[in-house]
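Reviewer 2 asked us to include a model.

Predict the structure of this chain.
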Amino acid sequence: MIYEFNPGVWIPLGIVVLALVLFLGWMIKTYNMFVGLRNKVRNSWSQIDIQLKRRFDLIPNLVEVAKGYAKHESDIFTAFAEARTMYHQSSESNNVELAAKAESGLNGAISRLLAVSEQYPELKANSNFQSLMEELSDTEDKITYSRQFYNDHVMKINNQVEMFPSNIVASMFHFKSESFFEITHEHEREGVKIKF
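Predicted model (structure tokens):
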């Protein structure tokens, strides 16, 4: 028995096979895109975490220098300790919202410390205090950049999770929207002003 080429059978079958191959290729590409975006979000979060850790490591040194001048300002030192504890909890659980809340508490304490330093010119003139404040200022800049970088990646993955047709692959493989690193208190919008 000899098979004859019958275009009425092979062409539709070829079209179906080609459509399946293209669909499978698109699914693989989209899945890999989600994995790449998720990893970028994780990496950019780790960059924020590094800078927040650096900032929280600088704080005890600043506090120790300031304690010698402003012994009666214990509420500031308590606020630093509470914010640091909250940060460690957020770091252990990879909780962006808790980290933002810890940062908010720290920003308030830093603002109060700066106000205290204005009342004590000898503290403000202390070379250790000045050096630590310069490091803190540098760290604040890095945190700002890292937050922006993180939020850019979160926006990209969130767009893909929500937009058609990539939302189909996102729901099939349980890719979820990520949380932005947002300002949680109105006083944070003003920023920390570091002056010498």
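The CA atoms of residues 38 and 157 lie 7 Å apart. The first helix runs from residue 7 to 67. We have added this to the supplementary material.
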